[in-house]
């Protein structure tokens, strides 16, 4: 059983990569200095061991991506302070693995979270295979029901499944894309690689994080801006991040930047549904305000905030914010030096490819790209056509890699000037994870238990009650990460910078 086809000429084989190899590869690929590694020490307890029951090297990617996010923040801090003070960054493997599932581990007043999965979604049989339906958001659930001729208010799961059984998988996938529903056919690796989006993504992506300068050197490097203090208590203290995001990847990026001291202003829409049970975990460290971009006042307020931001972080469907006047080009014109960071499902960073503007979520990328079929094959039960991974690995890895790319852009803006764009996609992360190869045969499903999860939690008061949630797994000598702001009701803060 091969997880990486032999006919992919020129594709990288990272099957022998250690966790440190991945850290080095991405660090140098982002154009970050080699000599910084002389004073930024990396400590990886339990590195290269198995952490979670999967044929995929999830622990490897968790430890590497979280370490990179802290390492790159430390680099920016050293640039701000013009200092090469030695600093150790530690990321224990088991803690990193727990943090890759943080949205499922928190307790509110001692009680576990309720499931955010919708009543109709998941894997369903079709006339010729299977599809996976995403219905966590009510608008997506309604779109799927409308497509199938069902009433979203009264439909049962059995009725929903019977309607899907009348469709062919690829035809339903296409109809879903045309109607606003989120439905993807279950594919094997071979089926994915033979499809148009699979060919584009698997042959086109070369690196999981895209960082590039979009304008010439301008003005004074932002590292000396008045709102970014020297000798601060945390690595990113004072950095202003305007976040417009939805679950889970981009919010993880914002939460990670917040852990290192960045001022995150999370902007949500009063017109869109939320997932409060998921939002609680990823909203730690963030102030929250609401703006209605369907109004002139809301657009004006967001433009005013963008004028004072260091980073504009967004994960809406590609092109949707640009259509409202918030493209990378327009924001760079009004605020030279801004970093525009985007998270998407399928976009390659160039807006190309047959699915580049399509909606997508971690579970959909796993499903469509062959990961779930391969995981089931490795598990070895022929009765199971699809096996989901034990964590939302693409979401979490994408979030930490996006934070890494933002930190790299902050550093390079300080040293080179210019405005910058950063982009990460779930599909690009999927490709990198696959390039690490899977454990052979049925190996990987047996691993040491993570132990008592409570040891990784901290308890704080919030607007919703006492929250016990996973602490950040990266430790930074002398600049320990942590969250100053605890989850609060959406729209609790004014739309202004501190």
List keywords for this structure.
36% helix; CoA-transferase family III; Rossmann fold; 17 helices; 498 residues; 17 strands; disordered N terminus; alpha/beta; four-stranded antiparallel beta sheet; CoA-Trfase_III_dom_1_sf; seven-stranded mixed beta sheet; 15% strand; globular
Walkthrough of the structure:
By secondary structure, the chain is an alpha/beta fold. The protein has a domain at 19-114 and 201-354 and 388-452: Crotonobetainyl-coa:carnitine coa-transferase, domain 1 (Rossmann fold, 3-Layer(aba) Sandwich). The chain has helices at 19-29, 58-80, 93-99, 102-105, 138-148, 157-164, 169-179, 189-194, 196-204, 249-259, 276-282, 296-307, 328-334, 362-368, 371-379, 393-416, 426-435; strands at residues 40-43, 87-90, 107-108, 111-112, 122-125, 130-133, 183-185, 210-213, 240-244, 263-268, 286-290, 311-314, 339-344, 420-425, 457-462, 465-470, 475-476. The protein has a seven-stranded mixed beta sheet, sandwiched between helices. Strands 4-3-16-15 form a four-stranded antiparallel beta sheet. Strand 1, helix 2 and strand 2 (87-90) form a beta-alpha-beta unit. Helix 10 crosses helix 16. It is globular and about 65 Å long. The model is unreliable at 1-9 (pLDDT under 50). GO terms for molecular function: catalytic activity.
Computed Rg: 22 Å
Strand content: 5-15%
Overall average pLDDT: 93
What is the strand tally? 17
The low-pLDDT segments are: 1-9
Q: Supply the number of helical segments.
A: 17
Give me the CATH architecture of the domain at 19-114 and 201-354 and 388-452, please.
3-Layer(aba) Sandwich
CATH topology of the domain at 19-114 and 201-354 and 388-452: Rossmann fold
Shape, please?
Answer: globular
Question: By CATH's scheme, which homologous superfamily of the domain at 19-114 and 201-354 and 388-452 applies?
Answer: Crotonobetainyl-coa:carnitine coa-transferase, domain 1
**Portion of residues in helices?**
25-40%
Kindly provide the name of the CATH class of the domain at 19-114 and 201-354 and 388-452: Alpha Beta
SS-based class? alpha/beta
Strand order of the largest sheet: 8-14-13-12-9-10-11
